[in-house]
Amino acid sequence: MLKQWWLQRQLKKRINNSSLDSARMHYQYLLDHLHQPISTVNLLALDIEMTGLDPKKNQMVSIGIIPIINAQIQPKLAQYKLIKIQGSVGQSAVIHGVLDNDLKHALSIQEILLWLFKQCEDKVLVAHHAPLDLQFLQRALLSTQIHSQPLLAIDTLHIDKERQLRQHQVLKTGSLRLNACRSRYNLPIYNAHNALTDALACAELLLAQLSQMGGMEDITLAQLLIKNR
Amino acid sequence: MDNSELQPIFDFMCQLPPFDSLDQTILKQCCQSLTIAYYGKQQQLVHVDTNQAQLYIVRSGAFEVTTQQGELIDRIAEGQFFGFSGMLSGEKVVNQVHILEDGLVYHLPATMFDQLRAQSHSFDRFFNQAFAKRLRNQGSISNKHINTARITHIMCRNLTTIHPDATIHQAALLMSEKRLSSLVVMEDQLLCGILTDRDLRNRVLAKGLNGDLLVKQVMTDNPFTIEPNALIFEAMLKMSENNIHHLPVVDKVDLAGQEQQGKKPIGIITSTDLIRSQSSQPLLLIGQIDRQNSLEEIIQVSQKIPELLHNLISSDAKAIEIGRILTSVTDSLTRRLITIKQMQLGEAPMSFCWLAFGSQGRQDQMAGSDQDNALVLEREPKQTEQAYFKALSEYVCHALDACGFPFCPGNIMAQNPQWQLSLKQWQQQFTSWVRTPNPKALLNATIFFDIRPISGDFHLFEQLQETILKTTKNNDIFIAAMTKNALQSTPPLGFFRSLVIERDGSEVKGIDLKHKGNALINDIVRIYSLAAGVAEVNTSKRLESLISKNKIDKEIAMSLLDAWEFIAHKRLTNQGLQFNKQQTVSNYILPDNLSPLARHQLKDAFKVIHEAQSTIRLKFLRRF
Amino acid sequence: MDVQTLTYLIVGATFALYIGIAIWSRAGSTQEFYVAGGGVHPVVNGMATAADWMSAASFISLAGIVSFVGYDGSVYLMGWTGGYVLLALLMAPYLRKFGKFTVPDFIGDRYYSQTARTVAVICAIFVSFTYIAGQMRGTGVVFSRFLEVDVDTGVYIGMCVVFFYAVLGGMKGITYTQVAQYCVLIFAFMVPAIFLSILMTGHVIPQIGFGSELLDAAGNSSGVFLLDKLDGLSTQLGFAEYTIGSKSTIDVFFICGALMFGTAGLPHVIVRFFTVPRVKDARSSAGWALVFIAIMYTTIPALAAFSRVNMIETINGPDGQGVPHAEAPSWINSWEKTGLIKWDDKNGDGKMSYANGETNEMKIDRDIIVLATPEIANLPAWVIALIAAGGLAAALSTSAGLLLVISTSVSHDLLKKNLMPHISDKKELMYARTAAAVGVVIAGYFGINPPGFVAAVVAIAFGLAASSLFPAITMGIFSKKMNKEGAIAGMVAGLAFTTIYIIYFKFVNPGANIADNWLFGISPEGIGLLGMVINFSVAILVCRMTAEVPKDVQEMVEAIRFPKGSGEASNH
């Protein structure tokens, strides 16, 4: 109850304070659908590859998004973008496979943020370990002065963590990694560390989690949404 | 790597039969068009939207298709499909899909599915086969599906009929009113004749008779007819051989108290229908053969046979039809050669019949089949009479050899005096094989029991066949010996049902599709047929007859038919490939030349043979 | 190496041999088959038939029964041999011409009746069951001794082995495997017989040794004939004289007859004659089979006598005063573990004593004689192991064949043709396998709770066959007037009479099973012959009163007896 009231307040505040049209539409969409069953809500699974894990030091290099509409993942609407960075990707290329050379024609961080807001005008963001992605985005938003309000998202890691804690299981190291979560739902394991593949993996995981939580008809958006700390 | 592609989806699809056979760009489009959903056990059923047909591709999890009554039709696991039945049949989906294990499913929209079927033949074939299998499991094979029918496709079903006691005048009025060139004359639902405008012209007008004559006085009674499941090509052959232009299509029906079957007309086919419908290439060849008057000319014409085969293969005709067409050509060739020699030798001293055995008998000749033939004579010939048949048979056999049908290594040929026997000797010969099934007799049985008359007095053949079937029918000991013999050879499946590749020393020979595939099916079906006294010799016709007489499990019969066609088709296309690459044409297929899909299907086909072998082992040999 | 290890080795080696032959003949068959073109030689086929024929009953039990009861036991020898001749020469050729693969099929067609067929199926299953029960017991005895377990456990093990052999074995029915089985079997049987013969009489050939004088300790002829010595020992211990039977002449006659005619009705042996291509071959291989069977059957009395003398002397000691149990030879200890030998020290002197009547302290199962003989005579360990292999070969080849007959009869003849005509072929196969499993279990039950020793159980099977199937087959061939009503009534009457008689004396009231209570003094083992007579009489009586046989059937019967020159290949 309290959480919902708080969420509503937060969203209203963001709508009033947003200077960007698409950002306002995004929050409005969230507000409108807060009490709707999740099956009727458009979702946008997202994954970002970075040069490291520290939002203060590291930068984003690529972003993949894939929408879930009518409870079905839509590969044909999937998109993948590379992001221009300061300096070099360095050792992180080993993980995400994006090389400095690939980034020559990449979009600037401003362009990316505007594009992303455009994409989620009528969608809710979903990510695995969302706080990390949101912190990176938040820092970028601040630095580019496009927008100042923290974003909201559904976190598939958080869902599984709560689920395990509810079942009184001891959380083992690594048991909340994307592939570890997926294997619990009989989902295939993807090996590539690619923003788009991970976005797809995250989208599939969410569908599986929702199915196991009792179906998408009975769960509302408000139950799933968390705030960036 | 193009990062805008969803690599995991593409990786999965490009290894999944039949998608693996698609072109890369098409496959990418196909991946783009997918949507992905997750089905959890709690939902129990997959909700199938009947308005929006799509193919369900199982990425993970397990599902079960059942009828509405809950009978299991199919179990579906990772890498398998459901939802195609509705798209293929166009019928409303009534089957239910149960979720056994949670899983991820890709949806391929119907438009994309249809596009892929149109673009790729093997894709289309895969789903048609899966559909046929599904139907069979469902136990409801409606005729619509198995008859990708032939004659029935082009025949005219709107029969205009007339009673034999009507007058010619009435008939003529009817014909001009309906703009017809022929009328089918019918009494008591049965065919009794045909009246064509040629009859009216030649038998009435030309003779100055008037219109009061009755139809039955003028009509052609007992006209040539054809059965609805015949090939279009066979109708053409019948017409051109007999110089006629109309063929009533009839169903044979049993008549109470009568030996002979009655003919119930269900349509008519005219030469115009035929010309309109089909390419007539094999027919042209046969026509050419019939016009030649010397051996040299015949040999020259026969050199077109490989080309004919090649065209048939590349036009992707069914193997079973290719077999029938090629055999028809061989039959014509044999007939023409006999006629040519008889023009020189004169009338035969007694009636005789030229018999074909083995593949020619079964009508499944393929490239390079050797000749298996013999003569049945009215009685034992005297010395002088023997000379006539010696001359005739040596000429024909040598000529066939020159035409590309090599001598039989077992010397089962009409020119071998051992196989120029009188009807009575033949009857004794067959009886002794049946009574004394030693290995030699059993080897003979596999060849001689597939017997068909080619030229001469068919009555001799009919008497012989009657004896054969009478001795084999219900002779359990002979049938058991045949079964034991047939089980000596097994399909090339290993212990874990993997394909076994034959090797000759270090050289990989491949999989013998003929001897480890089609021949085994022929053997199995022959045993069933001889046990049941079925007169047909063609493997598919035997199976049809066995099904109608309820002498074989329908499921087994249909699977055998599918397996036969699949293996024969693979063998033919492989031979086409070898021919193109100018390799020696053989029955062996190399595993490298098999796509994962084909390998998968070949295993299925061999499994069918394996199961049928266990069935006959139990049924006829009382072992398991 | 100890006996047990050797047994594993030799049994394993023989099995490897059978499997090896199966694989070799399967791989090579197609070419070799056709190039030779002539099939197998009658001698080879004769050996295979002999292997089929010699069951665990012949191998394990026959010598035992002869050894224990002396002359009376020889009825089994005579009955079985006679039956074989009857079957091979008089019946098999005609049945063959009829073109039917199984006995029920023949009866069903000949008597133009589904009912007759079904009755025949039931008879065949019944007979096969009884027969296989005897085999299970034999297998159990072998396993129990060599795995040193209780005889019941031995039967359980045997059940599993037989089931897998029948259902999974690709080696059954392959002629050369059976030839190998025959060789193992006859070798295993002859070696101890020859050893004993040399040791006791100095003759290499046991059949001659049987009629010769015994050697004394120094190896010189003692002047005492083997059989005289046995007669002496038997009388001394209170048994009937060895060479004179205790059974009445009429009982001997009936047992002998039941065995003989029963043989001719046994389904699994008849089939063997159908698997050779030519009638002529069938006859000559039958002749050879007879020779090969005779080799063993004539050795049986000799072996029986040798081991009897040996056994009595080992237990009672050379002085006849008994050997202390503590000093008993190891074979007694091993067999005690199986429960097939029991010692009950009645007089408390610690010595074993074997005799007839009150003073007897030993309970010895007759089925152990052949297996124990090599040990009793202190023969080398490998001979003992060889016997185990031979016993298993005998039991397996017969049981597997019978199990197939039972299971296919149940699945095909009973289920598919009568009870559930709509089952698919796949289902039929499943039912056949299930029937085999059930068959093994039931047979195993009777193996554990036998209504008699192995040979007697088997004798009952023959009795049942004689009283039910034999008359129907014979009349089917030799009388064209016999109709279905007669045949069915006869089969039912014969089987019912025999079964009831046997069940009464063997199960309901076993205490009354003595000669005084028997009908005309005929024991349950011999009652099959009387059942057969009843069968014939009922059949003829009913036949007289009912409709005549259809014309076409009459013609068919005539045709198989008087072939119209179409039997063999014509000359050209």
The secondary-structure element order of chain A is: HHEEEEHHEHEHHHHE
Strand content of chain A: 15-25%
The tally of structural domains of chain B comes to 4
CATH topology of the largest domain in chain B: Beta Polymerase, domain 2
Structural class of chain A: alpha/beta
What separation lies between the terminal Cα atoms of chain B? 55 Å
Widest β-sheet, arrangement of strands of chain B: 1-7-2-5
The CATH architecture of the largest domain in chain B? 2-Layer Sandwich
Question: What is the total number of structural domains of chain A?
Answer: 1
Helicity range of chain B: 40-55%
Low-confidence stretches of chain A: none
Largest β-sheet summary of chain A: 7 strands, mixed
Query: How many extended strands of chain B?
Result: 20
Number of distinct helices of chain B? 26
Uncertain residue segments of chain B: 139-149
The CATH homologous superfamily of the largest domain in chain B: Beta Polymerase, domain 2
Oligomer: heterotrimer
CATH fourth-tier homologous superfamily of chain A: Ribonuclease H-like superfamily/Ribonuclease H
- What is the name of the CATH class of chain A? Alpha Beta
Apparent shape of chain A: globular
What is the topological layout?
The complex is a heterotrimer of chains A (229), B (624) and C (572).
Chain A: H1 2-17, H2 21-32, E1 43-50, E2 60-69, E3 72-73, E4 79-82, H3 93-96, H4 109-119, E5 124-127, H5 130-144, E6 152-155, H6 156-166, H7 178-184, H8 195-212, H9 221-224, E7 225-227
Parallel strand pairs in A: 1-5, 5-6
Antiparallel strand pairs in A: 1-2, 2-3, 2-4, 6-7
Chain B: H1 7-13, H2 24-32, E1 35-39, E2 54-58, E3 62-66, E4 72-76, E5 81-82, H3 84-89, E6 96-101, E7 103-109, H4 110-119, H5 121-138, H6 143-146, H7 151-154, E8 161-162, H8 168-178, E9 182-187, E10 190-196, H9 197-205, H10 215-218, E11 220-221, H11 232-242, E12 246-253, E13 262-270, H12 271-277, H13 281-291, H14 295-302, H15 305-314, H16 319-345, E14 352-356, H17 358-362, E15 373-377, H18 383-402, E16 420-422, H19 423-435, H20 439-448, E17 452-456, H21 458-472, H22 476-486, E18 502-504, E19 507-512, H23 514-532, H24 539-548, H25 554-580, E20 588-589, H26 596-621
Helix pairs in contact in B: 4-5, 5-25, 11-13, 13-16, 15-16, 16-18, 19-21, 22-23, 22-26, 23-24, 23-25, 23-26, 24-25, 25-26
Chain C: H1 3-36, H2 42-53, H3 56-69, H4 74-98, H5 103-110, H6 114-146, H7 151-167, H8 175-201, H9 206-210, E1 213-215, E2 221-225, H10 226-236, H11 249-264, H12 267-274, H13 279-316, H14 330-338, E3 341-343, E4 362-364, H15 369-376, H16 381-419, H17 425-448, H18 454-478, H19 484-508, H20 527-545, H21 551-561
Antiparallel strand pairs in C: 1-2, 3-4
Helix pairs in contact in C: 1-8, 1-16, 2-8, 2-13, 3-6, 3-13, 3-16, 4-11, 4-13, 4-18, 4-21, 5-6, 5-18, 6-7, 6-16, 6-17, 6-18, 6-19, 7-16, 7-17, 8-13, 8-16, 10-13, 11-18, 11-20, 13-15, 15-16, 16-17, 18-19, 18-20, 19-20
